[in-house]
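Usage example:
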Amino acid sequence: MVDYKVTDISEHMSFLEMMDVLNEQLINKGEEPVAFDHDCREGICGMCSMYINGEAHGPDRGVTTCQLHMRMFKDGDTITIEPFRAKAFPVIKDLVVDRSSFDRIQHAGGYISVNTSGNTQDANAIPISKYAADEAMDAATCIGCGACVASCKNASAMLFVGAKVSQYALLPQGRIEAVDRVKNMVAQMDLEGFGNCTNTGACEIECPKGISLENIARMNREYLSAHIKD
Ligand code: SF4
Ligand code: FES
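Running the assembly step on the lines above writes:
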């Protein structure tokens, strides 16, 4: 842990803008800037993974670090910033962690096969209940940030994987490969070294997109039924 003093911070700045000011001040002093991940800066890409004062994405609810404002802190506060910590998220440098384990889980089953020869049925012509469409859309809002893993005492990725499995399991287009999908994604999750879920629920509380624990329950049902079908 290293102590830095940062000045000229407005309450209207985002947390990442505060980090930019800190790094500018460090560079001007000839010191090494603090490495951190970011891209969209509008809560979409899931890159800005920081553990701030003991909480993933900091003290606000339903926001990512890039959407967190400095008005959540008091002038003179000491803010503790750590990388997301998990065996499956090795630290690359400072606050930057390698979350390619999430990509490998997605590669294992986070897709559907569609005939793109030109004869594909129009998706709007496939009847889908309002309930299923809403639930699938909610699951699809997961941005793969990894806050669920960082907040979990077991470093479990089950909220993330539950969201990805649910997003397809709820829609007719996803049913065709549902059995292989859940088996392959769970197998990859275990291979990457993520822990198991013990129903504490910290992941749901810290998730910036409000992904519900119901997605873990749905993944467990999908997993069980996939093995019964074998
Ligand atoms: S489930 Fe929530 S916390 Fe976990 S990766 Fe998705 S958006 Fe981030
Ligand atoms: S920088 Fe993209 S979600 Fe924060």
